[in-house]
Amino acid sequence: MKHISEIKHAFEQFLLAKTEHLPHASEIAYLLKNVHQENPEDFRGMLGRIPQDVRGEVLLELPEKLKEEAIECYSSEELAEAVEGLDSDDAAELIEDIVDFDEDKSEAVYEKLDEEDREDIDKIRSYEDDQAGAWMQTELFEATLDETVRDAIARLKRLKEEGELENVHQLYIVNDEHRLVATLALEDMILMDFEQTFRAQMGPKEFRSVEATDDIDEVATIFEQYDFAVLPVVDHDSRLVGRITSDDIFDVIEERATEQIYNLAGVNDEVEQEEDIKGVFKNRASWLFVNLLTAILASVVIGLFDATIAAYVPLAILMPIVASMGGNAGTQTLTVMVRQMALGDIEFGNAKSALYKEIAVALLNGLLFALIMGLIAWAWFQLPLLGVVIGMAMIINLFIAGFFGASIPLLLKRLNIDPAVGSTVLLTTATDVFGFFSFLGLAKIILL
Amino acid sequence: MKHISEIKHAFEQFLLAKTEHLPHASEIAYLLKNVHQENPEDFRGMLGRIPQDVRGEVLLELPEKLKEEAIECYSSEELAEAVEGLDSDDAAELIEDIVDFDEDKSEAVYEKLDEEDREDIDKIRSYEDDQAGAWMQTELFEATLDETVRDAIARLKRLKEEGELENVHQLYIVNDEHRLVATLALEDMILMDFEQTFRAQMGPKEFRSVEATDDIDEVATIFEQYDFAVLPVVDHDSRLVGRITSDDIFDVIEERATEQIYNLAGVNDEVEQEEDIKGVFKNRASWLFVNLLTAILASVVIGLFDATIAAYVPLAILMPIVASMGGNAGTQTLTVMVRQMALGDIEFGNAKSALYKEIAVALLNGLLFALIMGLIAWAWFQLPLLGVVIGMAMIINLFIAGFFGASIPLLLKRLNIDPAVGSTVLLTTATDVFGFFSFLGLAKIILL
């Protein structure tokens, strides 16, 4: 991102008509954020100075709270103009945002849109958030087989002049029922004879499309696997309804990664984005509550050995080490498994070798840290047998960590549960319970 | 991904010349993985049956171990053919892989490439892995300002026929010194008068390019922010050297996310990908060793209170609960901070409000779990004051968790250290040490 003073200067220059280059919407949004931090009054003032044709894009780039404030500031006429300046997918998103903040205002805005825009927005909003249809844009460059290339180009020209179409990439060929029958890259169209029809120049060729009800995560995987920059979207009846472009996929990949990272830590990505403290508190507390139950379970295990601890207090001093090492080693294994499963590198087919690898690494670590910690415990409390006890417990618990760290995600996946959700708490339960039990149990047998 | 039997069938049909549609390289790679699991001998047999022009792509899609085996199987002539069938960026990657597995063979392969391919590969390999130049492809559609559009199209046709160019998207206009002076989308070129020069039809227009030495992560951020599908790459002297496309960015985003997820859990993404047990063990052990030191530090803190524990053993039973809740709450905060900082949602400018939010959530959780755990401890050990002690310790430790969880990543970032690396261990140290100290310290003062 450019420096804020640079953006500010460019923006002022544009307003003074000293340059034709308006900063990019994301840069103006960045500037707005900055202005808001310094003085919320100036923020409101600046909103009115943003050129009308980029207002929509700027609004979409603002963080939730500022977006809400901006939507409040603008009149419904201004918002309708902002929506109309956007591509259909972005227009639907902005309408969605206005609905979230102010339902009445959203209706007023919606009423002011023209018929065609309303239809496009309705179509996109009819799909669930995780369906391809919710991510597509409806602006397309399309043609029929019996049109000449020249006629299609004339239409492209009109669409471009109207500002309806950007980043075209592909032409979509449809039949009379508006079913998609072929896709044609612009670079191939350019090499065609412009006076002839598409039918005369196109052989049968495989093409790929996605359905509007397809899961957007799976669509993203297709883009990644086959290196697509754009894909057409069809309805259940093969009719062309829109297209998804690589910039949508950037967002999907980032969101998916955020979801995984958050779920592993026991937070919900959607709640966190809302930036509402009450919601965040409730969501995090519910996860911490589950964690409290497992911690109590671990304490119950410790409670079984209260007489042992009373007889030899150093056990209480050392026992968190065994649990902590197990938890950390298990988290390493778990994280690698969850991520590699998400990327498709580990499937049930090759899960066995991944499991073996994790157990091998766990045992090696177990031996290493058994030795290190055994010597430390011996030296610390001047009792060789205490070293033996903690060493054995370390081997057992690091094995448990590797075994459960690798198998919990696989098991959850088999049960059709997202491995990123819940894996961590199950693992911690295992390493805590086994860690305390093995260490205190061995101590009771060997030391007392 | 299609079902394996479908891919197998399609592949067989192609080999029998019953269809012209060869499955995609990633599908063939998937089939190969499957065959290898069932019978490694069949895997070697199948390698020879892969049509020559997709061998390179298939090789690149294989997991490391199988890739190594396949590179071993193919002769250096076969590998050279595979490399020549690839786009320059992929060719450079495959050469890199061959170097990793067998340096002598890589030289033999390299010698067999033609001059031009060698130059392209050398150029790409001259950049570091994290530089844009290492990710670019050198195949381009370029023209000069004084060429006519028709001449440029004639060259495009030749390049396409030679299979040199795919997914063109943009034309790059260079001057006599091969400096990039403009970019032109194909959709705009198509609307031009083909008989005139570019100079006659193009006004001055801003365009964006990246430098070959730019950090690829920053390039990815530019793609995401401005919704690009392709960007030209220039050298330090503004000379056009290549281009980066959206599929490269998909990979960068996924890799960056993997790196963050792994770093938070104390594993190294590059080492994990090697699939070498010794390397993985060494890397993970070094992280566990750091963790061991912090665990020992926590034990030293417990050791300060050995007389307190000896006097009242339930303290040993309950103390891991305080530490565990702090660790988990802190991880929630830490994860959200690290991810939002990586996505650019949190910067120093708005860090204060993020910090306040985290502390507010931490205090709310502290009050809630102080109450719950206070009541449980009271009921469990029939001692009201024990409930007061654990409740107070819970509030203190959850506050510590929120405060350090939010400020450690900010502090590391300010010190120019990647917040994902090392945050976790610093946080655990804080929550363990403060957790044990506050609980046992309060117990000593209040209970004994």
TrEMBL record, chains A, B:
The entry's keywords: CBS domain, Cell membrane, Magnesium, Membrane, Metal-binding, Transmembrane, Transmembrane helix, Transport
Q: Where are the transmembrane segments?
A: 287-305, 311-338, 359-381, 387-412, 424-447
Can you say what this protein is called?
Magnesium transporter MgtE
SMART domains, alphabetically? CBS (SM00116), MgtE_N (SM00924)
InterPro entries given in the database record: CBS_dom, CBS_dom_sf, Mg_transptr_MgtE_intracell_dom, MgtE_N_sf, MgtE_transporter, SLC41_membr_dom, SLC41_membr_dom_sf
Q: Which gene encodes it?
A: mgtE
Q: Where in the cell is it found?
A: Cell membrane; Membrane
Q: What does this protein do?
A: Acts as a magnesium transporter.
Q: How does it sit in the membrane?
A: Multi-pass membrane protein
> What is known about its subunit structure?
Homodimer.
SUPFAM superfamilies reported for this sequence: CBS-domain pair, MgtE membrane domain-like, MgtE N-terminal domain-like
Q: Name one Pfam family in it.
A: CBS
* The CBS domain, residue ranges: 136-201, 202-259
Q: What is its main location?
A: membrane
- List the PROSITE patterns: CBS (PS51371)
Q: Which family does it belong to?
A: Belongs to the SLC41A transporter family.
